[in-house]
């Protein structure tokens, strides 16, 4: 019977809600929370950088699209003038 009690006490000390194990895991939980927060901040910074790059590319695309439209219009205009002269 004494052996069972000792074994029960031993197993009881390994339960997460009691003893040193709680302290042990709480330290790692705090470190994990810090690491996750840091990674989240890095991810948010990366997303912000990608948004800025996307906005810059949209502006560049719109500018080039307008230039292409003007170039096509000018080409058609010059083609019409050439056809009228001949």
Summarize this, please?
This protein is mainly α and 86 residues long. It is 92% helix and 0% strand. It has one domain.
Protein described:
The chain has one domain (2-85). It contains two helices and no strands. It has helices at 2-13, 19-85. Helices cover 92% and strands 0% of the residues. The radius of gyration is 35 Å and the shape is rod-shaped. The chain is mainly α. The model has no long low-confidence stretch (mean pLDDT 80).
Features:
86 residues, mainly alpha, 2 helices, 92% helix, rod-shaped
N→C terminal distance: 117 Å
Question: What percent of residues are in strands?
Answer: under 5%
For the report, how would you describe the main beta sheet?
none
Number of strand segments:
0
Quaternary class: single chain
Shape: rod-shaped
Q: Over all CA atoms, what is the radius of gyration? A: 35 Å
Average pLDDT level: 80
Instruction: Provide the domain count.
Output: 1
Low-confidence stretches: none
User: What is the SS-derived class?
Assistant: mainly alpha
The ordered H/E elements are HH
Residue share in helix? over 70%
DSSP helix count? 2
